[in-house]
């Protein structure tokens, strides 16, 4: 039985005090939710201050990105050992905004996935198609390519610690959510591909999240899909009430 995850990607929002306040509210609001893993993803500068606030709670802490090297001449970057030191146990990799604005390639994301595993950080690897690719019926081809590329060379024993986040790019921040059927089709396809590569046990263990305009009013129908194991939430993770409400619905998934 896969334990679902609700992860909040705060993107470039919230100053330190605001981030601490939000994290404390989420920790309090999700206290006692035993059937969902709740993770918050502040900006790099807020990681340590948020870690201090959520210490002793059940919340996980995710960085939104990391470099692959432990240290060195990489101006502006943050290393895997630094995010661990700040309190992270998770790292979001390959978000479409990183791919688009910072030109992260599938090769970079594969490299970072390996580094995350080596550092005992659980990667949330983001994939997803553009609107044009969906309209051209190339969705499955695109996501299969991205998943294969991200996982190239990853051992079967590590698959259970990797999370895939399917985020159709056209649904991110637009208010347009993939229908539950569209999400299920892609999630099932990814799981069956994992089964082909790593076997059924790995496919049954890997958690696949949906992301893209997830809100309190639509999470129930999305999480009801058999291959949807939770959500990566952007906008709705920036308010305690909406994020806690999403986590509560997922916590109640039968
Ligand atoms: O990482 C989160 C996604 O980009 C979704 O963002 P959104 O919920 O604001 O659409």
From TrEMBL:
<dbReference type="GO" id="GO:0046166">
    <property type="term" value="P:glyceraldehyde-3-phosphate biosynthetic process"/>
</dbReference>
<keyword id="KW-0963">Cytoplasm</keyword>
<dbReference type="GO" id="GO:0006096">
    <property type="term" value="P:glycolytic process"/>
</dbReference>
<dbReference type="GO" id="GO:0019563">
    <property type="term" value="P:glycerol catabolic process"/>
</dbReference>
<dbReference type="InterPro" id="IPR035990">
    <property type="entry name" value="TIM_sf"/>
</dbReference>
<comment type="similarity">
    <text>Belongs to the triosephosphate isomerase family.</text>
</comment>
<dbReference type="InterPro" id="IPR000652">
    <property type="entry name" value="Triosephosphate_isomerase"/>
</dbReference>
<feature type="binding site">
    <location>
        <position position="173"/>
    </location>
    <ligand>
        <name>substrate</name>
    </ligand>
</feature>
<feature type="active site" description="Proton acceptor">
    <location>
        <position position="167"/>
    </location>
</feature>
<protein>
    <recommendedName>
        <fullName>Triosephosphate isomerase</fullName>
        <ecNumber>5.3.1.1</ecNumber>
    </recommendedName>
</protein>
<feature type="active site" description="Electrophile">
    <location>
        <position position="95"/>
    </location>
</feature>
<feature type="binding site">
    <location>
        <begin position="234"/>
        <end position="235"/>
    </location>
    <ligand>
        <name>substrate</name>
    </ligand>
</feature>
<dbReference type="InterPro" id="IPR022896">
    <property type="entry name" value="TrioseP_Isoase_bac/euk"/>
</dbReference>
<dbReference type="GO" id="GO:0006094">
    <property type="term" value="P:gluconeogenesis"/>
</dbReference>
<dbReference type="InterPro" id="IPR013785">
    <property type="entry name" value="Aldolase_TIM"/>
</dbReference>
<comment type="pathway">
    <text>Carbohydrate degradation; glycolysis; D-glyceraldehyde 3-phosphate from glycerone phosphate: step 1/1.</text>
</comment>
<dbReference type="InterPro" id="IPR020861">
    <property type="entry name" value="Triosephosphate_isomerase_AS"/>
</dbReference>
<dbReference type="Pfam" id="PF00121">
    <property type="entry name" value="TIM"/>
</dbReference>
<keyword id="KW-0312">Gluconeogenesis</keyword>
<feature type="binding site">
    <location>
        <begin position="9"/>
        <end position="11"/>
    </location>
    <ligand>
        <name>substrate</name>
    </ligand>
</feature>
<dbReference type="GO" id="GO:0005829">
    <property type="term" value="C:cytosol"/>
</dbReference>
<comment type="function">
    <text>Involved in the gluconeogenesis. Catalyzes stereospecifically the conversion of dihydroxyacetone phosphate (DHAP) to D-glyceraldehyde-3-phosphate (G3P).</text>
</comment>
<feature type="binding site">
    <location>
        <position position="213"/>
    </location>
    <ligand>
        <name>substrate</name>
    </ligand>
</feature>
<comment type="pathway">
    <text>Carbohydrate biosynthesis; gluconeogenesis.</text>
</comment>
<keyword id="KW-0413">Isomerase</keyword>
<dbReference type="GO" id="GO:0004807">
    <property type="term" value="F:triose-phosphate isomerase activity"/>
</dbReference>
<keyword id="KW-0324">Glycolysis</keyword>
<comment type="subunit">
    <text>Homodimer.</text>
</comment>
């Amino acid at each position: 039985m896969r334990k679902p995850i609700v992860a909040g990607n705060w993107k470039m929002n919230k100053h330190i005090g605001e981030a601490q306040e939000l994290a404390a509210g989420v920790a309090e609001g999700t206290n006692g939710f035993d059937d969902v893993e709740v993770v918050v993803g502040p900006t790099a500068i807020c990681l340590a201050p948020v870690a201090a606030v959520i210490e002793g709670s059940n919340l996980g802490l995710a960085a939104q990105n990391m470099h692959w090297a432990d240290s060195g001449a990489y101006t502006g970057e943050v290393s895997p050992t630094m995010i661990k030191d700040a309190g992270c146990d998770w790292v979001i990799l390959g978000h479409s905004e990183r791919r688009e604005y910072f030109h992260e390639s599938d090769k970079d994301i594969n490299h970072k996935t390996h580094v995350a595993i080596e550092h005992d950080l659980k990667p949330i690897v983001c994939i997803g198609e553009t609107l044009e690719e969906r309209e051209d019926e190339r969705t499955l081809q695109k996501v299969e390519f991205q998943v294969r590329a991200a996982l190239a060379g990853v051992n079967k024993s590590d698959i259970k610690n990797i999370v895939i986040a399917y985020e159709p790019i056209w649904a991110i921040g637009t208010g347009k959510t993939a229908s539950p059927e569209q999400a299920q089709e892609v999630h099932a396809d990814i799981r069956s591909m994992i089964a082909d590569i790593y076997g059924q046990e790995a496919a049954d263990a890997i958690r696949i999240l949906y992301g893209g305009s997830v809100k309190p009013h639509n999470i129930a129908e999305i999480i009801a899909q058999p291959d949807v194991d939770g959500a990566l939430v952007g906008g709705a993770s920036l308010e305690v009430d909406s994020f806690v409400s999403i986590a509560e619905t997922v916590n109640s998934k039968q």
